[in-house]
Amino acid sequence: MIRLDGADDLDAVVQAIGDADFVLLGEASHGTSEFYTWRAELSKKLITEKGFSFIAVEGDWPSCYTLNRYLKQYAGTAPNAREALRDFNRWPTWMWANEEILQFSQWLYDYNKPQSVKSKVGFYGIDVYSLWESMDEILRHLEKTGSPELDTAHKAFACFDPYDRDPQNYGVSAAFLSESCEEEVVKLLADLQAARKRSGSDDEASLSEELNALVAVNAERYYRSMVRGGPDSWNVRDRHMVEALERIKASHGQAAKAIVWEHNTHIGDARATDMKADGMINVGQLVREKYGEDRVYAVGFGTHRGTVTASDRWGGEAKTMQVPEAQPDSWEDLMHRAGAFDKIMLFDRKESLFVEPVGHRAIGVVYNPRHERGNYVPSVIAQRYDAFIYIDVSHALSPLKQEVLHV
């Protein structure tokens, strides 16, 4: 156990990460300031001391790519970090449009400024939700460049026109009425991939085009499976995030190293939780299985009590809510009883400590503290993560004020 008082205390985690190519940094909520700031501090060390190439987050590709272009000082980008964050206008906006990300973006901009083009650190979204936004971005870019794939894109996206940009409408039609657009978007992705290979381009605009097409393919599958229920939609989403992560990593070269920022439920190995019994997989499990545990390092986060930014309903207003004291005998309660201070735990999966399942709190963008008992995931902590950062009393993050597109 290491007391966490300042950034220097993270050196033990950096040392334990060793030569890992993937560092997965979690969070127990999407609205806790300390989770964002400590992830940022750890990421700074990984970038400056270990040469990590990019950060991939649980966010939409189009809005994150706007920020990425600013961070890399591309021509025609936003004049400052606050403006670059305006594209995070789809609910829940506070996940990425917040003061904590603003401060980290300013640091990353300054870090990138003297770097060569290939050495600048990127910031990318690997989630699956931006179906229509990604289609819009593809059409804009293909029209701007006069690409021969423009006609294929128009034909593919015309299939979605009857659904009025409503994923629920599309999901019901595709799942129950056999009105799927899968064939069209798969063909578009294949055409864009082939064009990128023919050109041999390492231009990020071509990568963006390809990733937006990948979102269209997997978002179509996600919304189609979502209305049927069961674990399929979750698994489509996490497989998409791994595929996007791998494509971004490949574009940065064989030696590229990736930092991932996502909720604990995505980065902590699903096999060490009750997700396994429900037939669910996640990012942490998939990358460990494919690349080996020595190349992947996962850090979970949690808190005993405090405040959080969340909403009491889907699409609702962001609020500062109280996070009650952790349930008795939960992981967070045990951490508090071990000392009422912030701390780091490093795990050795060869040892017999922390191998019994205990409840581990998970807070979503929709949160009701009155139903707190249902927010705990039974977890074998030392198998779910390689390390854990515990915040005894946490605080709500600070959203930036902007217009919200509800979905």
Q: How would you describe the overall organization of this protein?
A:
The N and C termini lie far apart (42 Å). The strands form 2 sheets. Strands 1, 2, 3, 4, 5, 6, 7, 8 and 11 form a 9-stranded mixed β-sheet that branches. A two-stranded antiparallel ribbon has the order 9-10. A hairpin with an 8-residue loop joins β6 and β7. The chain has helices at 11-17, 33-50, 61-71, 81-84, 99-112, 131-145, 150-158, 167-176, 182-199, 204-226, 232-251, 264-267, 283-291, 331-337, 381-384; strands spanning 2-3, 22-25, 54-57, 122-125, 258-261, 296-310, 319-323, 343-346, 358-361, 376-379, 387-394. By secondary structure, the chain is α/β, with parallel strands linked by helices. It contains 15 helices and 11 strands. Helices cover 43% and strands 14% of the residues.
Could you give a short description of this structure?
It is globular, with a radius of gyration of 21 Å. The mean pLDDT is 90.
Q: Any chance you could write out the topology, listing elements then pairs?
A:
Elements: E1 2-3, H1 11-17, E2 22-25, H2 33-50, E3 54-57, H3 61-71, H4 81-84, H5 99-112, E4 122-125, H6 131-145, H7 150-158, H8 167-176, H9 182-199, H10 204-226, H11 232-251, E5 258-261, H12 264-267, H13 283-291, E6 296-310, E7 319-323, H14 331-337, E8 343-346, E9 358-361, E10 376-379, H15 381-384, E11 387-394
Strand fraction: 5-15%
Rounded to the nearest angstrom, the radius of gyration is 21 Å
- The pLDDT mean sits at 90
Multimerization state: single chain
Total DSSP helices: 15
Which structural class best describes the helix and strand composition? alpha/beta
Anisotropy-based shape:
globular
Regions with pLDDT < 50 over 5+ consecutive residues? none
Question: How are helices and strands ordered from N to C?
Answer: EHEHEHHHEHHHHHHEHHEEHEEEHE
Q: In percent, how helical is the residue content? A: 40-55%
Largest sheet: 9 strands, mixed
Termini Cα gap? 42 Å
Beta strands, count: 11
